[in-house]
Amino acid sequence: MDIERTKPVAMAEDERSEDEQSPVLFSLLLAILITALLTGPAVFVRLLNPSPAWELLLPVVFFVALEAIVTTRWLAHPERRSFNRLSYRAAEVVVLAFLVRLLTWLVTGGFPGWATWYEYLISPLTFLDGVFVVYLVLAGVAWERGSFLTNLYGRLTLSPGERAYYSLGEEEQRRRIDRPVDFSRPEVFESFVRSWLNGGLVMALFAALTSVDFTRAADEGIRSLTRLGMEPQMLLALILYFILGLWLVSRARLTMMQARWTADGVKTLPDMSRRWRRGSIVLLLLIALVAAFLPIGSTLGIATLLALFFRVILAVAQFIFLLLTLLGVLFLSLFSLPSGGEEPVEQAPIEPPLELPPITPAPLGETATLFAGATFWALAALIAAAAFLFFVRERGIRLNLDLLAHWWERIDRWLQRLWHSASERAVTLQDAVRVRLQREAGTAAGSATPWRFLRVGALPPREQVRYFSLSTVRRASEAGVERQESETPSEYARDLQAEWPEAEAEISALTDAFLEARYSARAIDSDDASAVKKVWKAVRASVRRRRQKDSA
Amino acid sequence: MSSLAVLILILLVVGILLRIDFIFYIFYVTSGIYIWSRWVMPRAFRNVRFERTFTDHAFLREVIPVRITLRNEGRVPLPWLQITESVPPELSSGRRPNYALSLGGGERTAFTYKVRATRRGYYRLGPLFVRMGDLFGWQQQNAQSGLSYLTVYPRIIPLSQLGLPSRLPFGTIASNQRLFEDPARPNGVRDYRSGDSLRQINWKVSAHSNQLVVKTLQPAIALDTAIMLNLSAGDYSRRARYSAPEWAIEIAASLAAHLIERKQAVGLATNAQDPLLQLRSAPDAAGAFDAVSGRLLLAGEDAAFVPPPIPPRTGRDHLMKILELLARVEAGRNAPPFASWLPGATVHLSWGATLPVITPTADEALVQALHRLVRAGYNPLLLLVETSIHFGEIRQRARQLGFTAFQVAAQKDLDVLQSPQPAQR
After folding, report:
1. What are the residues whose beta carbons fall under 8 Å from the beta carbon of A317, sequence distance 6 or more?
2. pLDDT score at B414
3. N or C: which end of chain A has fewer CB within 10 A?
4. How confident is the model at residue A334 (pLDDT cuts 50, 70, 90)?
5. Rounded mean pLDDT of A326-334?
6. Which of A509, A357, A200 is nearest to B5 (CA)?
7. Among B48, B259, B61, B246, residue whose Cα is nearest residue B172
8. B2 at A interface, C-beta within 8 A
9. Which of B18, B95, B109, B113 is the best mutation test for A, with the most CBs of A within 10 A?
C-alpha cells in the first residue's frame, strides 16, 4: 500500500511505547509528579511545626518515589517473572524505612547517644519519634504511588511477548496457542487518569489548608483564623502537578493507543508519536501561557457573584438546619413534660457495687525488660539485615563472604588477644595485692583466711547488703571492737554505737538493713543496696578515722 | 469523563471561597484543556474530508487501485485518526487497509490499496470507518464515509470468428449471403478491389485521385442481435445449478463483446433477477451485500426485479451497459418460464434480428416458441449450456423448425462456435 502526504515524513516510527523509548525521562517525570503531590502535606506539616527537620522531607519523597518506580520497572522485566515479588517488595520497604530512620537521625541532630539507645532497648516504641513517623508516612505514600502508577503504566504498554506475537502474520497468529491474554487497557488508562484526578483533589485541599494560619488559631482561638499567602513550594508543586500530570496523561493515552493499534494490526504512520508528543507540549504550554494573561483572582465579578451565591446557599443551609433542630427539640420536649395527678414513686436507693481492689500487674524486673527489648531489637536487626542482603543481592550486588570471613577472623583474634592480656594483668594485680596485704597484716595473720578479691557491684543487692554489714564487723574487729559469738546483731550494734557515737544513726540503719536482708523475704533491689552503701561508707569512714587516730 | 469537570468545579470553589488567586490559574489551565478537548476537537473533526477514488468497473482478474484521500480543511491539527476501510473479502488482496495517523491543519494524506476482481458481481467498497480523538482521552468520535460500488464484469471469452447464421446479411461480418445496401445512405469510399461492381465506382473521386475508388453504403436494413438469456434456476439441473448459470452469463457477455467489437448492434433480455433493482426499491434492506463475499445478493424474488430488456445498440458504452447487467443478475427460482417469457421479450425487436437464445436445455415448448419466432421473421439461434444426451434430437427438431441449435457446455465447446459456420436457412 502506498502513502502520500502533503508534508514529508521526517523519521521512521519506533514501534516501542513511549516510556520504553525514554525510560529515564519517564521515571523522572513520574517521580516529580509524586513529589509535587506530596508537597502539600509536607508544607502543611512544616507550617504546623516549623523546624529544620523537614528540610529533607521532599528530597526523601522524591528519592523513594524514584526508587519505587525503578524497582517496579525492574521487576516487570520478563526475566523476573518467576520472582517472589512480595518478598522482594517487603525487603525493599524495610531497607527504605531503615534509610529513612538514619536520615531522620541526621536531620534531628545526629545519631542517638547511649542513653537513647538504652531507652530504645527498654521501650522500643520510643524509636518511632514524630519526625520519623512523618518521614515514614510520606515516604510510604510516595512508594505506594510510585509503584502503583508505574504498574499501571506498564500494563498500558505491550509486553515483549505481546509484541512478538502481534508481529507475526495472521496465519501464524492463528496457529499459535500462546495468544496473549486480552484485557481492557482503556480501563487501566481510566484508572491512571482517575488516580491523577484524585491527586488533584488532594492538591486543592492542601492548597487550601496551607493558606490558613492554624498556629495562630490554636493560640488565639478559631475566631482569629487568618489566611496566609501560598508558599512558593506549593505554587511550584501545583503547576508541576497539573501541567506535568496532563502531559503524562497524554503520554499514557498514546501508549495505550499504540498497544491497541499493534494488537489490531493497525499500521501507524511514521512520525505520529513525535507529532503527538510535540502537539501535547505545545498545547499545554499555549494554554498555560494564555491562562497567565487572564484576569486572575477573587476580584473578578463572576468570582464575587459566585462567592455571594455560595454564602447564600450556606446561610440557607444553616437556617434549615436551625429550623430542623428547633423542631426536633420541641418534639422531644413533649416527652419530658411532667404527667399531672400521679405521685412520683419513690424508689429504693441502689447500692453502689462493691469495688474490688485493682489488680496491678506484677512489675517486670529490669532484667526481663532488658531481655524483651534486646530480643525485639535483635529480631528487628536480623530482619533488617536479611532484607538488606536480599534487596542488594537480587540487584546483582553480591557480598564477598571470603572478605567478611577474613575480617571476622581478624577481629576474633584481636578480641582473644585482648582477653588474654586483660586476664594476665588481673592475675598479676591480684597477686600483688595479696602480697601487699599479707605484708601489712604481719605474720600473725598468717593463719587467717586468705584474702579473696571480690567485686561488690557484681553481687546481687541482698548479698551486697550482707557484705556491707560483715565488712563493718571485720573493720570494727580490727579496730578493737570484736563481736562475741553470743551477741546478736542488735547487741553488737549497741557496742558499736557506744564506741562510735557520731555514727549512731548509720550503725542502726546498717543493722536494720542487714537483718532485713538476712531474715526477711522482701525483695531488695539495687536502689536499696545503693542506700545501704551510703550508710556503710559513713560507718566505714568513722571506723577508719578512729584507726588512723590510734595509729597516729 | 466527568471527573475532570468535578475537579475543575472544586478548584473553582476552593479558589473563590478561600480567595487563593493561584488556584484560578490552575482552574484556567485545566478548563482550557477540557474546553479544547470537548469543544474545539469535535469541531475540528468536522473539517475532515474523505474521498475514495477508483475505477468503478473492472474486468475479471483485473487489479484495481483504490485511493483514499483524507484532507483536514481546518487549521486545528488532529492528533490521531484511525481509518479502517471495509473491503469485500472476495476482492481483498491482503490485509485490509487499517491506518493510524495524525493530520495537521490543511494537510492531506492519501492511501492507495489494491483490490483484485476475482468474481463477477456488484460489490460495495466501504464504508471507511474513521475514529478520531483528542490527546487526553476525553473526546473520541466515530465517523464513516460514504459507500462506493464496484462492478466486476463477467469473464469474456474471445470469439473472433463467431459466425452466427442469419436469414438476412449480418452487418459487416463475412457471410455467404448477398449484402443489401441502401444507395441513399453512402458511408464513404474505398479502393477498388477485383470483383467490385462497376456501378459502385465513384467516378468523380476516381478522376480526382487518379485511381479507382468505390462507394461504400450503409446496410439497407439495420440487422440487430438480441441475446436471450434464460436464468430461471428451475431450468438448470441440480448438479450444475451454480456453475451453469455462470457459464451462460459468460457466453452472453462473450457474444455481446464479440458483436460490439464488430460494430454490431446488440441487445440483451433475460428473465433473471437484478439485485440492484431490489436494493433501489428498499435501500435499507439489511444484508443486501453478502457478509462473507461482500457481493450484492438477492434477498427475495419478485417479478419487479426482472430487469427490462436492453434494446440493441452499438458502441462500447452500450457493451458496458450489457456487461453491467450481466455482472449483477442472479438466477431466480421463481423466474417466469422462459418459453412463455420469450415472445414478450422480442416484441420490441425489429424484423430479421438474430436471437442467440442461451438456455440450459430446450423442451418442446421452447422449441415451439423459437419456431414461432422464425415464422415471425426472427433468426433464433439456440445455444444449450448444459450437456444433454438428447441434444441430437433437439438439433434435428430445430433444423426441421427452421433454426439452428448448438451445445456450448464447456470451454471446448466454444471452439465449435469459434469457427465460421455456414448460414442455415
Report:
1. none
2. 55
3. C
4. confident
5. 85
6. A200
7. B259
8. no
9. B18
CA separation for the pair B361, B340 (Å, rounded) = 15
Cα separation, A195 vs A149, in Å, equals 8
Buried/exposed code over B344-379 (b: 16+ C-beta within 10 A; e: otherwise): ebbeebeebbbbbbbbbbbeeebbebbbbbbeeebb
| CA-closest candidate to residue A218, choices A207, A210, A208, A226 | A226
User: What is the rounded CA–CA span in Å between residue B3 and residue A192?
Assistant: 12
C-alpha A341/C-alpha A493 separation (Å) is: 84
Cell digits of residue B289: 451485500
Q: Work out the angle at residue A225's Cα, subtended by the Cα atoms of residues A222 and A229, and round it to the nearest 5 degrees.
A: 160
Could you say which DSSP state residue B304 is in? G
Which of B54, B52, B50 lies closest to B115, judged by CA?
B54
What SS3 class is residue B62?
A: coil
Instruction: Name the residue among B30, B36, B113 with its Cβ closest to that of A242.
Output: B30
Query: CA A448 to CA A478: how far, in whole Å?
Result: 13
What is the mean pLDDT of the segment spanning A146-170? 86
One-letter amino acid for residue A427 of the chain: V
Kindly state whether B7 is in contact with chain A, defined as any CB-CB distance less than 8 angstroms. Answer: yes
Asked whether the beta carbons of residue B110 and residue A197 sit closer than 8 angstroms, the reply is: no
pLDDT at site B177: 40
Q: Strand ranges (DSSP E) for A253-400? A: 267-268
Contacts B14 to A, Cβ<8 Å: 204-205, 207-208
Least Cα distance to A45 among A218, A216, A293, A214 occurs for: A214
Q: From CA B273, how far away is CA B336, in angstroms rounded?
A: 10
Please list the alpha-helical segments (H only) found in A123-271.
130-156, 160-166, 170-175, 185-209, 214-220, 232-239, 245-264
Question: How far away is chain A from the Cα of B151, in angstroms, using its nearest Cα?
Answer: 22
Residue-wise DSSP of B239-270: GGTTHHHHHHHHHHHHHHHHHHHTT--EEEEE
CB-based contact A310 B13, cutoff 8 Å: yes
> What is the C-alpha separation between A316 and B135, in angstroms, rounded?
42
The CA angle B237-B239-B242, to the nearest 5 degrees, is 85
**Residues from chain B contacting residue A230 (CB–CB below 8 Å):** 20, 22
User: Can you tell me the distance from the alpha carbon of B72 to that of A106, in angstroms, rounded to the nearest whole number?
Assistant: 61
Select from A3, A6, A248, A250 the residue whose CB has the most chain B CBs within 10 Å, as the one to mutate to test that interface.
A6
CB atoms within 10 A of CB A324: 10
B5–A contact, CB cutoff 8 A: no
Residue in this structure with the C-alpha cell 448477398, named with its chain if needed: B178
Does the pLDDT at position B166 exceed 50? no
| Beta-carbon separation of A249 and B20 below 8 A | no
pLDDT at A37 over 90: yes
What's the gap in Å between the CA of B324 and the closest CA on chain A? 28
Nearest CA in chain A to B35: A287
- B134-B143-B140 Cα angle (round to 5): 25
Identify the H or E element spanning A89.
Answer: helix A85-107
Q: Do A261 and B82 touch (CB under 8 A)?
A: yes
Rounded CA separation B227/B369 (Å): 15
Distances in whole angstroms, Cα of residue A167 to Cα of each of A263, A264, B96, B97: 9, 11, 16, 17
C-alpha cell at A209: 489548608
CA distance A298 to chain B (A): 5
The span from the CA of A472 to the CA of A451, in Å, is 16
Task: State ipTM.
Answer: 0.70
Element (H, E) at A255: helix A245-264
- Chain B residue numbers with beta carbons less than 8 Å from the beta carbon of A209 are none
Q: Of A166, A164, A253, A193, nearest to A33 (Cα)? A: A193
CB B62 within 8 A of CB B76: no
